Input
Amino acid sequence: MNSKIYASLALLSIGMMAAQPVEPVAAIKTQALQDLQGRYADYRQVAQSIWGFAEVGYKEAKSSALLQKTLKDNGFTVQAGVADIPTAFVATYGSGKPVIGILAEFDALPGLAQQATTAKTPIAGQDAGHGCGHNLFGTASVATGIELKKLLKEGKLKGTIKVYGCPAEEGGSGKVYMVRAGLFDGVDAVVHWHPSNQNRSMMASYIANTSAKFRFHGVASHAAASPERGRSALDGVEAMDHMVNMMREHVPQETRIHYVITGGGRAPNVVPDYAEVYYYVRHPNRDQVKDVFARVVKAAEGAALGTGTTMDYEIIGGTHELLLNETLARALQVNLDQVGGVAYTPQEMAIGKQLQASFGYPAPPVENAATIQPFGLSDGGGSSDVGDVSYVVPTVGLTAATWIPGTPAHSWQAVACSGQEIGTKGMMVAAKTMTLTAIDLFSDEALLIKAKAEFKQDVGTYVYKPLLGDRKPALNYRD
Output
């Protein structure tokens, strides 16, 4: 054989060998599962610390710092304050391809402070609570990143792992700014998860969303002595709300519109010169969100005109619907089946039944937390800025039973579960499943090729553009 040809073939062979794990994938996965379980207590402590911090969107200074320190202590290089967001970060280890991203969230929700008990028991002096389990979310993702880093360092995998610290998922659209800043450029696939009341490979799309605060400005006056001299900003808000509520009959039936009046005056005998209402508009299709939101703006303009007030509004967030990747979701399902669900102790079973008694509606058996849901499309309903990530890189996720079956998200029961062993056990199901799935992505080039082909076909000719435009992050949207 020609010596040059022989040399070329030898180099090709070496390159192919370098792309493969140095030991069987099954053995690597077994080690990963053992490693993760061995650090159960460490990760439980991290999750419980963040549960106690209970920091709302863009204010998660302690939570972000703890996750960053955990990653740094385990050999990651951390870039903090990315995308003009003080609490956002990207932690990186390794070099070369493939580049696999893991998403980590850690913000809490206002008005949901709750003790880890089976009765509704607010925490004195605290407002926020982890009603969506993001204390567990961020910790499991960091645990995944650390285990993958360990395998990369040992030479059992080749490539780069990135853990994305993603603030303000709850309405602040933190990931949208991170996407817009190009932080996902060059990433081959992204893995994420979300706390839930069941274990499932995610085949339900988050729906698109735009949110805004509408601010009305009027003229203050004595409400009894000189009402004719006043112009009520609260009248403007209420007129807007009334028109939007009438509009519900005339929008696509999948549309969801929610609002809360965040400012409406301080005293009944003072005509309010300022009032504010915070709106969400959702639909499974981003174009429908744009259309409906434009009509909501028109209602606000009409309300201001009719009440003699003025109005301005600020876009707070905007997210795409989630682009599902069936190729990756099926691969994740295999790993979720291997990991299995959550096994409760008799004491945890009793706690679960007590919590279910507070629901006021029938709930599935507590034992269902040990069940893995079969693969297939399921109903969505919520929104997430993960949707924007999914339009720039193939993305896959799962839900894990961190809450007692039947528990609704954004409830005091979810906060209570997220602060107990019940939540930690589900968190580890997620960490293990994401780790095994990422191992597949590092070691199986054909899986990535197929996932990217599906992604390219589904995106088609669409060129990603954030729904929130070019505004800067709404760092004070929870104020």
About this structure: The chain is about 40% helix and 15% strand.
